[in-house]
Amino acid sequence: MYVKSTKTGIVRTVKMDSRTMAILNEWQKKQKADYFKLGFNTKSATQLVFSNEENKFLQPTKTRKWIIQIQTRYNLKKVSTHGMRHTHCSLLFEAGAKIKEVQDRLGHSDIQTTMNIYAHVTAKAKESAIQKFEAYLSI
């Protein structure tokens, strides 16, 4: 297992909502306690959020297996990790995020990549567009 740079070669920080951050902070407390018992120092600035039993990188197949278990247990539609990235982006567009904001979040160097791959217009977004148009005409 090795870590490589992003396709663009640029390191970026991805903002997270406060609720997710609160959950991750609770996870970090549990992780510190669990790993302390195993003799691992988790105070490093490079501490992984999710790691294996040896406090090293997880194999990508491991997270995929977890996702499949959850989808099966709760009878959810099967979606790959990359499919979740697509869903996240579609929901950002539905929520009103601008194309430039989504491009930055995804780390695309070319806005055309974002537009071509991720800007599927959902039924909700189509409805929203016509409602905006109708509201504009009624001024």
Structural account:
Helix 4 packs across helix 5. The N and C termini lie far apart (59 Å). Helices cover 58% and strands 0% of the residues. The protein contains six helices and no strands. The protein has a domain at 81-139. It has 139 residues and is an all-alpha fold. The mean pLDDT is 86. The protein has helices at 18-38, 60-73, 81-94, 99-106, 111-118, 123-137.
Keywords:
139 residues
Write a short abstract of this structure:
The chain is an all-alpha fold and 139 residues long.
Which structural class do the helices and strands define? mainly alpha
| Tally of helical runs | 6
What's the number of extended β-strand segments?
Answer: 0
Roughly what is the average pLDDT, rounded to an integer? 86
The residue fraction in helices comes out at: 55-70%
Topology:
Elements: H1 18-38, H2 60-73, H3 81-94, H4 99-106, H5 111-118, H6 123-137
Helix pairs in contact: 4-5
